[in-house]
């Protein structure tokens, strides 16, 4: 799509609406209108048309478009939110299990980590576990300054307070475990010279 493309045809608006939906879904949280406009490479008028088309498209579905003067977000529709809330409550009643503890240990002792780094250390997909930890406010997700396609996961201040530590370095055996994690990652990055 060319820079600052004017929209006018139904097909162009539908294409922008589809792209907006994809970007908002991927973001998973409110996005600044200015950022979405930049991602879509469109004008203010094009953004308004795309968001209007997307809002119409979402009517009667499980998702709805929420807009403020500065942000937009794709969220669960009011008709579906009671079912989602009930499932979240059931999820909170379950223990986080060994997988959750392992992920928490990684973000505590390794520091801010991407999902792919956590997956690599654990050797399995951690998507579901991270969602559980996020929903319980044990970890938070922030933008990765080195790669806008990934997020960084880190422990929340609330979780650290629950553990009774003011600084991550106050965790038991912090230096030893952090260095062992670092050594593990470095040995796995080395090509196997025996092959």
Keywords:
single chain, 195 residues, alpha+beta, Arc Repressor Mutant, subunit A, three-stranded antiparallel sheet, 6 strands, 13% strand, disordered N terminus
Quickly describe the structure.
The protein is 55% helix and 13% strand. The chain is of the alpha+beta class and 195 residues long.
Task: Give an overview of the whole structure.
- The chain is of the alpha+beta class.
- The chain folds into 2 domains: 67 residues, Winged helix-like DNA-binding domain superfamily/Winged helix DNA-binding domain (Arc Repressor Mutant, subunit A, Orthogonal Bundle); 95 residues, Arc Repressor Mutant, subunit A, CATH 1.10.10.10.
- Helices cover 55% and strands 13% of the residues.
- It has a 3-stranded antiparallel beta sheet. A 3-stranded antiparallel beta sheet has the order 4-6-5.
- Helix 1 packs across helix 3 and helix 5 packs across helix 7.
User: Would you report the number of β strands?
Assistant: 6
Gross CATH architecture of the largest domain: Orthogonal Bundle
Q: Judging from the principal axes of the Cα atoms, what is the shape?
A: elongated
Rg: 21 Å
Alpha-beta content class? alpha+beta
Question: What is the terminal separation in angstroms?
Answer: 47 Å
